[in-house]
Automatic annotation (TrEMBL):
Coiled coil: none annotated. It comes from the Bacteria. This is ABC transporter, ATP-binding protein. Residues 4-232 form the ABC transporter domain. PROSITE patterns: ABC_TRANSPORTER_1, ABC_TRANSPORTER_2. It holds the Pfam family ABC_tran. The keyword Nucleotide-binding applies. Keywords: ATP-binding, Nucleotide-binding, Transport. The lineage of its organism: Bacteria, Bacillati, Bacillota, Negativicutes, Veillonellales. GO terms for molecular function: ATP binding. The keyword Transport applies. PANTHER family: ABC TRANSPORTER ABCH.1, IMPORT ATP-BINDING PROTEIN.
Length: 233
């Protein structure tokens, strides 16, 4: 069943009195449990689309059904609530809080969700164990390698059990070995029925996903996966 249905999504920016269309008339359905890579040249609209999918921004026109609920016209507070509940984010630069330990970073989404301290610690410890960092739980981000930091960030993205994970260039700052670790962690999420959407510039990374979307000038021009190639435009 679909977790994401976009219908006629468009987004226009106004700059110096000029209108610029960053996304034009996007139609897209993503099934629960899919692992999707989003590619496209700089300026093609990847960030704009990820911001809409991640409930960080609203489209100007069109409909966005997330888990069956229309979210394209929510208020800022409602969007933030949806985001905190339904979506886990992983970033190129990890976005960990430098003064907090790995464990405290992972527990952070549970603070926002109002989960009591003991349960926060218990759940964060379990997540850190899942990414193989139990013995690093007291360490701060600067005491960890890049690959370890990204594993902390993935544990944080998952700790509140969201159905959707958005990863923006998650391996952009990592060496080959750590890149493989992070990609296999993300792939393993499919077994838990998590939907993963990953932005990448690298075709080898995109190839690890089961479906590849190509954005060009604000339109999805290619949608391929499982050997099926569909030229949309
Ligand atoms: P990337 O290609 O890595 O996604 P970009 O340079 O396209 O990075 O964009 C980085 C951020 O800046 C995004 O959040 C995007 O929305 C914003 N941005 C991009 N272009 C502009 C612009 N012309 N004016 C204002 N913000 C922009
Ligand atoms: P990508 O992530 O693929 O690089 P973006 O979504 O950042 O693409 O940008 C798509 C287009 O929209 C670009 O031409 C960019 O300059 C423009 N854009 C993005 N964000 C803004 C913004 N906040 N204000 C004005 N223009 C923007």
């Amino acid at each position: 069943e679909p977790i994401i249905i976009l219908h006629h999504i468009s987004k226009t920016y106004t700059m110096g009195g000029q209108q610029f269309t960053a996304l034009r008339d996007i139609d897209l359905t993503i099934r629960a449990g899919e692992f999707v890579a989003l590619m496209g040249p700089s300026g093609s609209g990847k960030s704009t689309l990820m911001n809409i999918l991640g409930c960080l921004d609203r489209p100007h026109t069109g409909s966005y059904l997330l888990g069956g609920r229309e979210v394209s016209r929510l208020t800022d507070d409602e969007l933030a609530h949806t985001r905190n509940r339904d979506i886990g984010f992983v970033f190129q630069n990890f976005n960990l809080l430098p003064r907090l330990s790995a464990l405290e970073n992972v527990a952070l989404p549970l603070v926002y969700a109002g989960v009591p301290r003991r349960e926060r610690t218990y759940r964060a410890e379990r997540m850190l164990a899942d990414v193989g960092l139990t013995s690093w739980r007291k360490h701060t981000p600067t005491e960890l390698s890049g690959g370890q930091r990204q594993r902390v960030a993935i544990a944080r993205a998952l700790v509140h059990n969201p159905p959707l994970i958005m990863a923006d260039e998650p391996t952009g700052n990592l060496d080959t070995r750590s890149t493989q670790d992070i990609m296999s962690l993300l792939k393993d999420l499919q077994a838990q029925k998590k939907t993963v959407i990953l932005v990448t510039h690298e075709p080898e990374i995109a190839a690890a996903a089961e479906r590849q979307l190509l954005l060009r000038d604000g339109t999805i021009t290619r949608d391929e996966g499982k050997g099926v190639v569909m030229d949309v435009v």
